[in-house]
Amino acid sequence: MNAGLDGRPAPLELRRLTVSYGARPVVWDVDARFPAGALSAVVGPNGAGKSTLLKAALGLIPSDAGQALIDGRPVRGALDRVAYVPQRDAIDWDFPITVREVVEMGRYARTGWIRRVARTDRALVEECLARVGMSEYASRQIGQLSGGQRQRVFIARALAQQAPVMMMDEPFAGVDARTEASILTLLRELRDEGRSVIVVHHDLGTVRAAFDWVLLLNVRAVAAGPVAEVLTPEILRRAYGGGAVDLDPGEATWAG
Are 154 and 102 in contact (CB under 8 A)? Predict the structure, then answer.
C-alpha cells in the first residue's frame, strides 16, 4: 500500500488512466495522487474530461488503460471506502421515492437491500438529514424538491455511507449562492473530521478560496498540487489556452 507522508494511503490514485469515446481520447495518460484528509478539486475547461475521469476512476465507465486505486486498493475491492455524489442530471427525479428513502439507500451496502433498516441506521439517516438541513422534507417525494434541496439529499445519502472518501461531480451546479456556501461549509467540516473529499468543479475562484489541493485537467493532467502552486496565471494559460485571467492574488476566473 502506497502511503503518504502522514501514513495514510491516497484516497484516490490514478496511474496512467486513459479513457476514450470511440476514437476520441477524453482522458489521456493521467497520473495523480490526491492527498488524504484534504478538500481537493478537479478543474479544467469544458470538455476537459473531468466528470469522465471521476466515473472511470470509480469503474462506472470503462477505461482503455491505466488503473485507479482507492485508499491504496484496486477500485473493485474498495468501493465500500468511497461515497459518490453524481451530477443531478444523471438521476431520475420522477422515481416515486421519498427524501428519507433516498438517504436510507446509503445504508444498503451494510444492511443489504432486503432487510429492513435497523433502528441505529434510521437514527443515522435522521442525523444526516439534519446535517444538510433537510429533516422537514423527509417525507417529500424527491421530484418535488428544488435543485439545491435535491443536491442536499444526495449529499446526505453519501454521508449515510460513512465512507472515508467522498467524491462529488459538480455539486454546485444549478444551486444558489446560499446553498453553495452551506455545502462548502459542510465539506470543510468533513475534511476537518478526517475525511478526504474530491470535487469536480468549474469555478476557479471558489477553488482558490476554499480548496486545499487541485488537479488541473485538459484531457491530460496539466498540473497537480496545492491550490496556490497550481492556479497561477502561467499554468492556467497552459490549461485554458490563454483565457484564464488572474484578477488579483486572491482570485482567478475564466474569460474565454
Answer: yes
